[in-house]
Design goal:
This protein starts with a helix and ends with a helix. About 4% of the residues have low confidence. The radius of gyration is 16 Å and the shape is globular. It is mostly helical. The chain has 8 helices and 2 strands; from the N terminus they run ααααααββαα. α1 runs parallel beside α4, α4 packs parallel to α6 and α5 runs antiparallel to α6. It has one domain. Strands 1-2 form a two-stranded antiparallel sheet.
Length: 189
């Protein structure tokens, strides 16, 4: 089976729109998204009107885009099955992974993609943490953060074993969590 270039292009375009909107919201103070504001207990559980009621303009736009992408992703799965690197290549799988990461309101989709898609070990680690948090559990790789309004500081969402987090990250090709933290802090400025 060769790479389906039409499908790859569609996924890449969805990815680019996803990233462009998120970056514009971070850069534009008027529509800024309150990144990392949910704690573990609320992560992926606030939906629909409840979410939109307190959302910034950027948050509302992202929510709407993620829902449009959800429909398109399910249509892709219905037509092609769960994407693999044989179908859309390694880059395509990375693009698809980012789209699935942002489907926090569809845990079933995230879980099925985690099982059936051949994501890179690094991408699989990020999605594993997201699925665990969305299931009310602690993450393994320490890839997910939130802004704690009480202390005014970015914090790592709860981790299963904080002493082992950098070792687990290294096993899948991710650098120490402190580097991720520094990158996130730089983006937030």
């Amino acid at each position: 089976m060769s790479i389906d270039k039409k499908l790859l292009q569609a996924i890449k375009m969805m990815f680019e729109v996803d990233q462009d909107l998120r970056l514009q919201c971070v850069a534009n103070k008027k529509i800024q998204v309150p990144l990392f504001e949910m704690n573990n207990k609320d992560y992926g559980k606030i939906k629909g009107e409840k979410l939109l009621k307190g959302a910034s303009l950027g948050g509302a736009l992202i929510y709407i885009l993620d829902n449009v992408h959800n429909i398109r992703i399910w249509n892709i799965i219905d037509k092609y099955g769960y994407p693999t690197s044989k179908l859309i290549g390694k880059n395509g799988m990375h693009y698809f992974h980012i789209l699935i990461q942002h489907q926090d309101y569809d845990l079933k989709l995230q879980e099925e993609c985690l099982k059936k898609c051949d994501f890179s070990p690094k991408d699989k680690a990020y999605l594993t943490d997201r699925v665990l948090l969305n299931s009310g559990k602690k993450q393994i790789y320490g890839t997910q953060f939130f802004f704690d309004k009480k202390i005014g500081k970015l914090e790592m969402k709860p981790v299963e074993n904080s002493k082992m987090v950098n070792r687990k990250r290294k096993e899948v090709g991710i650098g120490p969590w402190e580097k991720d933290f520094a990158k996130i802090m730089k983006r937030m400025k």
